[in-house]
Structure formats: structure tokens, C-alpha cells
Write a structure and sequence with these properties.
The chain is α+β, with helices and mostly antiparallel strands. Helices cover 17% and strands 44% of the residues. The chain has a 4-stranded antiparallel β-sheet, with no helix packed on it. Strands 2-7-4-5 form a 4-stranded antiparallel β-sheet, with no helix packed on it.
């Protein structure tokens, strides 16, 4: 009986030790805003409440049709901005676009999406998340 309890205790301890790196890598994404992309425009802006705290990266999640994004401009609360050339299709097939900021964490004001105008069957819906 004692051997069985010891074996179970060792197994649980081993599982926790091996699982610790998995849990420590967990990233919490906070909802920051969203935009519906319309075919008659060439850009949209997602306003962000700067009071939510500094973020070191943002993530774009797309539903609806794919769209071809030319560039993304991240505007910070201090007036600075960062322009990222994308030049590629952002897909709604479960792939998320993660953007890490060059200089660490920033308070955000808005994120601008510049894209090619085109008609879509289902307008793309872009949701913006941030992580600290």
C-alpha cells in the first residue's frame, strides 16, 4: 500500500514539474477593440482605451472573408507611431497575426489597417487583442 501511494505521489510530482513550463508560457490576450472592413474604403481604425495599461504585442483575429493588408500603423498614447508593412493576405482560417512592438510595452491609442478595396461576400471582421 505504501509503495502504491509513493508511486502515485512521485507520478503527480513529476507531471507537475513537466507541466510547469507549459503553464508559464501561457499568454493572456485582452480584447482591445474591433472593426468591420468595408469594400468601399481602403483603411479602418480600431480605437483603443489607453487606460487598459501598456502592451508589448497585439494580435489580429479575422472572421469573414480574407483581405489583403498593405500596412498596419500602431499609434501610441505618447504621440509616437510604428508602421509595419504587411503586404500580404490576412486569413480568417484560424491563423492570427501577432505584432510584437520593437521597444517593449506601450500604451495604445489606435491601430490603423490599410488594405486594398475589394468586394467581399462577407465583410471581414477584425478583432484586436493585446498582451502585456
Amino acid at each position: 500500500m505504501l509503495k502504491r501511494q509513493t508511486a502515485c505521489s512521485v507520478a503527480v510530482l513529476l507531471a507537475l514539474v513537466l507541466a510547469a513550463p507549459i503553464f508559464s508560457r501561457g499568454v493572456v490576450w485582452r480584447f482591445l477593440g474591433d472593426a468591420r472592413i468595408h469594400g468601399g474604403q481602403d483603411h479602418d481604425r480600431i480605437q483603443v482605451d489607453g487606460q487598459q495599461g501598456p502592451f508589448r504585442a497585439v494580435q489580429l483575429r479575422v472572421s469573414g472573408d480574407n483581405f489583403f493588408c498593405q500596412r498596419i500603423i500602431v499609434n501610441y498614447s505618447d504621440g509616437a507611431s510604428e508602421e509595419l508593412t504587411v503586404g500580404g493576405r490576412i486569413s480568417s482560417e484560424g491563423r492570427d497575426r501577432i505584432i510584437d512592438f520593437k521597444d517593449g510595452a506601450h500604451l495604445l491609442k489606435s491601430v490603423e489597417l490599410w488594405y486594398f478595396k475589394q468586394p467581399w461576400e462577407r465583410d471581414p471582421h477584425v478583432t484586436l487583442y493585446g498582451t502585456r
